[in-house]
């Protein structure tokens, strides 16, 4: 039986951490190294980590100064001894068969990476672990990347996956960036060439008020930078996906400006400037533009002027 390392970055999650750790400790696959990286928490999270060390000898705790999610994950990777690695966010919950199912998928398909469905739940909800069987699919890197582009299936998250440790050698999460998964996952899938996909929800993502994903900050624009990096890879290796993702990038430029407006961002001039700067790195010829649907053409052109485009959209909706 192979050792599997589970890396859990911890930062100010005293209300959620016990349930997360309980779901990890109760995994049906038992040979685990559970690495808790306390990233300078100011609440009771460090004490909770230390208590769990006493409960479970598989747990190792690292206390460090705050450096952000990427830094905490990278610290966990340095200490991972397993043949395989998983990442779990400290406010999320795992199905008891999460580790076993992803491990079995890797062994059966002989791939260096596997993934499962993610199911979101909100504070106060209790995830339901239904045994619906594990439908297994072997996907090429291109098929998996297309699912990421479509926002379903394999997904861009680093947390619904298991990685062969060798696959992650020389890899790390980008320091100081939000949406760190967006910078990471597409590269790893391309490197793996194939991925085993378990078509069952085994990872439960908690959507909570005040989280990075539910409030707007300037750092959310990091996602557009990750988008551009992915486009470079697609241009070079996956031309069939490149055209589709170029249009999606333009739509995202407009959408992020709208998110900033809706979030009452106080730095709208900066947001507009940053989005324009990033958008201008993508070029469309008139011939190429004509191959897109009319709706996508509107977004492609409109993304060059996000402020004006959003004003026009508001007027149309208010008409």
Show the helix and strand layout:
Layout (H helix, E strand, L loop, with lengths): L3 E7 L6 H9 L6 E8 L5 H11 L3 E6 L4 H11 L4 E4 L5 E2 L3 H12 L3 E10 L13 E5 H10 L10 E4 L15 H13 L1 E14 L14 H16 L1 H24 L5 H12 L6 H4 L4 H9 L3 H13 L1
Helix pairs in contact: 5-6, 5-8, 6-7, 7-8, 8-9, 8-11, 8-12
Number of domains: 2
Per CATH, the superfamily of the largest domain is Spore Coat Polysaccharide Biosynthesis Protein SpsA, Chain A
Give the rounded overall mean pLDDT: 93
Count the beta strands: 9
Instruction: Report the major sheet.
Output: 9 strands, mixed
The helicity comes to 40-55%
CATH class of the largest domain: Alpha Beta
H/I helix tally: 12
CATH architecture annotation name of the largest domain: Alpha-Beta Complex
Q: Regions with pLDDT < 50 over 5+ consecutive residues?
A: none
Return the CATH topology of the largest domain. Answer: Spore Coat Polysaccharide Biosynthesis Protein SpsA, Chain A
Q: Name the helix and strand elements from N-terminus to C-terminus, one letter apiece.
A: EHEHEHEEHEEHEHEHHHHHH
Describe this protein with a few key phrases.
12 helices; 2 domains; 45% helix; 319 residues; Spore Coat Polysaccharide Biosynthesis Protein SpsA, Chain A; alpha/beta; 9-stranded mixed β-sheet; globular
